[in-house]
UniProtKB/TrEMBL annotation:
GO terms for molecular function: carbonate dehydratase activity; zinc ion binding. This is carbonic anhydrase. It comes from Haloprofundus marisrubri. The lineage of its organism: Archaea, Methanobacteriati, Methanobacteriota, Stenosarchaea group, Halobacteria. Gene3D superfamilies: Carbonic anhydrase. The keyword Lyase applies. Coiled coil: none annotated.
């Protein structure tokens, strides 16, 4: 048996011991308070970044590039895994979670600037990001280096995903849509693992957001107000 799997099973046994009674209220149905759309990155611990240990509280989705759309014969639509809790469990908060140093954003940047390609399955995902990031790549300041460009595009990508949710007829107006960036590279502050709010309902101006949401003003920040 693979040693890593053996270790995972042992940790799962500890999890089962700790969580044995925490499923009593959600065994038959779920009504999560939020749906989060995170990047599929081993450094982004989807529940742990919120300190969540409550089953049924957060409906977690992940894919490379924290995308909210999927491609169908009818065109690009809100992905079913994101839409499900909104449409069927009464969830009224959607949080798009980007992260510093995102590999999917980096790969998209390289594809748009240098024509770099990847395996077909990855290319399919990047093809959903390219049209949303292309204008952002063109608008990047000339005086930022590669890392700075990537992290600005992380924000830009979060904005575009928030926009896609807000513009979809499948997402009711009553659903709050928020965009955040998870930072483990000391980009926004020296508190690694902290989440920074960059977009609330399409509003991206930092001062406006701080005025509108004083209770979390210290957590609102952006690298790029384009």
């Amino acid at each position: 048996m693979n040693d890593t799997l053996t270790d995972l099973l042992q940790r799962n046994a500890e999890h089962a011991d700790a969580f044995e009674n925490r499923f009593d209220d959600v065994q038959d149905a779920q009504h999560p308070d939020a749906v989060t759309v995170c990047c599929s990155d081993s450094r982004v611990l989807q529940d742990h970044i919120w300190g969540n240990e409550k089953p049924g509280h957060i409906f977690t989705c992940s894919n490379i590039g924290n995308r909210v759309v999927q491609r169908t014969d009818a065109g690009d639509v809100v992905s079913g895994d994101v839409l499900y809790p909104i449409a069927h469990t009464g969830t009224e908060l959607a949080v798009v979670v980007g992260h510093t140093g995102c590999g999917a954003v980096t790969a998209t940047y390289d594809a748009l600037t240098d024509g770099v390609s990847d395996a077909p399955g990855i290319e399919h995902c990047l093809d959903l990001l390219k049209p949303r990031l292309e204008a952002g790549v063109e608008a990047l300041p000339d005086d930022v280096g590669r890392a700075g460009a990537i992290n600005r595009l992380v924000e830009y990508n979060v904005d575009r995903q928030v926009e896609a949710l807000r513009e979809s007829d499948d997402v009711p107006d009553a659903v709050d849509v928020v965009g955040v960036v998870y930072d483990f590279q000391d980009v926004y502050s020296d508190r690694r693992g902290e989440v920074h709010v960059v977009n609330v309902g399409g509003e991206t101006d930092v001062e406006t957001l701080r005025e509108q949401h004083p209770e979390v003003a210290s957590r609102i920040d952006r690298l790029w107000e384009y």
